Give the backbone structure.
Amino acid sequence: AAVQPQAVRTRTAELRDHARTLTPGGVHSNVRLAGPSVFFERGEGAWLYDVDGNGYVDYLLGQGPNFLGHASTRVNDAVARESRRGTIFGGQHVLENEAGELFLDTVGWAERVRFGLTGTEADQVALRLARAATGRTKFVRFEGTYHGWLDNVLVTAVDGKTAPASKGQLAHHLDDTYFLPFNDVDAVAATLSAHDDVAAVIVEPVMCNSAAIMPRDGYLQQLRRLCDRHGIVLIFDEVITGFRLALGGAAERFGVTPDLAVYGKAMAGGWPVSALAGSAALMDMFGGEVNHSGTFNSSVPACAAVIAALTTLREDPPYTRVEDHGMKLMAGIRELALRYDVPMRIQGLPMAFHVSFGDPSPIHDHSGLARLDLTRYAAFAQNLVSHGVWVAPRGIWYVSSAHGDRELAAALERFEAALATGA
Ligand code: PMP
């Protein structure tokens, strides 16, 4: 392979040093501390370009939002055009209805929606609503999922036990949670039988934040049945899966309807919008008894972005294309791993899959991550970045509707060049 590492990053180095004098660690989100520090000039389709002129095939998509590729003309033009009338009024505006109707029609099962800015806050308001509706306090979640960075949800594992992931976090906020292994129906059944204080079960239908672990056949259906039996609110955290696995997200793909679902990332073509959706009976509690607020909720640019992104997805559904690209990419990586005799393992769905080193047998819960060599992959991810493939050190790969044959060829050529330097 003739691809050389794109070694020149002089301007990035200058900007990184400057950034460290302005913002802690030189980054504005701690997630970015883990990655290589690259300053980007612009994104276009499936490509990113850094300030030193290097190009990258992007399989991180800004951590997921750029499902339509970077700088979608249709989305960005709509945002610019609509925002000329102003952005936020402290009252209602017409685009809210249009965005709400389109959103609900696209999701399919939900009757009401509230727009917000981030997945983190939408998760919080989902949990609050579940508590309000049931009069109970606790919730069940699963080891290895991510539901935002706030005190009651941010966790890490210390000696195999769930613990706060940050200094300054109030550890007792985690006391309201039963942490269970994913894909273990009996564990959920036992917990719900033993405790009558559970308001909600919250789940990432595919554990994209944990090696893209798939739900076993029937698992989500059984969660649905258990929640029904115990009068518990089933919350799907579709921040990653929403509009990505299918127009109707994981709910559509797996044929299971939650009571509430949280969306973000792919729903607005790269703009900061999240949503909580659900039945009228639950959601209408926000009409008075339950608080959900936000100065910037449902701004004109947010609604314009949602309308443009969802219209694009509905007019020309990219799912077959994205799936095809992802399948070819996964197969190509597997083939290269074989050829270079490295123990690479890949699992998940073609639109969001996980790459690491280690035992290639599928893993079904978070404890299986112990069989993976995540450190080795993180180092290899750095190598991939220096060869012009923008990926996250934690191993998640996202495919967008802008990825085509040219990107596939470039990505695999660069992947091979990186492998040839050692992994
Ligand atoms: N839930 C899930 C499943 C996520 O993946 C994320 C973000 N990666 C969040 C919630 C939080 O979303 P945000 O970063 O927009 O607050």
